[in-house]
Amino acid sequence: MGERTPIVVEDECIACGACEETCPEVFRVNESLGFAQVINPTGAPEEKIQEAMEVCPVNCIHWEDEMA
Prior knowledge:
Layout: E1 6-8, H1 18-22, E2 27-30, E3 35-38, H2 46-55, E4 61-63, H3 64-67
């Protein structure tokens, strides 16, 4: 299975920082924009990215292939 790409739905993101706290290699909260961004989609194992998705209180992080 190929590498999956995480995406943040910016309109839904509340910039709480949970994803960055769980997986700072992949996610960073952009304070000036007011939402988190994927800074390095392959920066961590899928399991760790999945963990960051699960701690998100508004469930705005998804795998790109699931959004299609």
